[in-house]
ABC transport system ATP-binding protein
Amino acid sequence: MEATKRRSLIQMKDVTKKFGKGELETVVLKEVNLTIHEGDFLMIVGKSGSGKTTLMNMIGFLDRLTTGTYSFLGEDVSLLNENKKSSIRNKHFGFIFQQFFLIDSLNVAQNVELPLIYAGEVNKKDRLEAAEKYLSLVGIPEKIKAKTKELSGGQQQRVAIARALINEPLLIMADEPTGALDSDTGIGVMSLLRELNKQGKTIIMVTHDEDLLQYATRIIRMHDGSFVEEGAVR
Ligand SMILES: Nc1ncnc2c1ncn2[C@@H]1O[C@H](COP(=O)(O)OP(=O)(O)OP(=O)(O)O)[C@@H](O)[C@H]1O
Ligand SMILES: [Mg+2]
């Protein structure tokens, strides 16, 4: 499908992000423009400190723009209050991080179910069934009762991906999802993300690793607060 025919999820126009004031002011993003369509697998690359996480935080409603406009599913994000932003975030975004951020005092199923609990899903049986479904999807159904500490890094990241998927979000946000994994395990996680993208899931991912760009359908390279889009490799 052509990009123009797919639904636009996100539109950022002339977005600037500054931290600090006066002499301490840092301009991290300079009037950038970004449109994300359903089905994109967008990778954001750039050296350390170039603003990749800052951009992800703004996309995921975790930080505010300094200037510019952000519209999400046609709604102006600046007009939403914190409650509304939290509920949109919980419903439409699934987050995956380099350090997994699983809760060690909960078992695998309980970790995966967390977004459903936040969303108010009270039926335990439904939650467990959903956890089973998504743990199967990420290839580790047998770990459903395991303690998170008993899992390998790659298995922990699969649990985190199942947790990110369980609410059936529109977007998966992944900041260096393979950063803490050895390269073979990382390739396993990337294959899973590519499979999810082929099934239609929209993914925005940050990486340092040029070798991973082959998985993207779009690539944005950040540099000095601006970015350029490059053709995808695949
Ligand atoms: N809350 C904050 N307050 C002040 N400055 C910040 C804040 N968050 C980020 N910055 C600055 O913004 C710039 C971009 O940081 P960011 O974390 O987005 O970089 P990054 O591209 O994700 O880097 P890395 O690859 O190391 O994760 C850095 O100069 C950082 O010091
Ligand atoms: Mg970062």
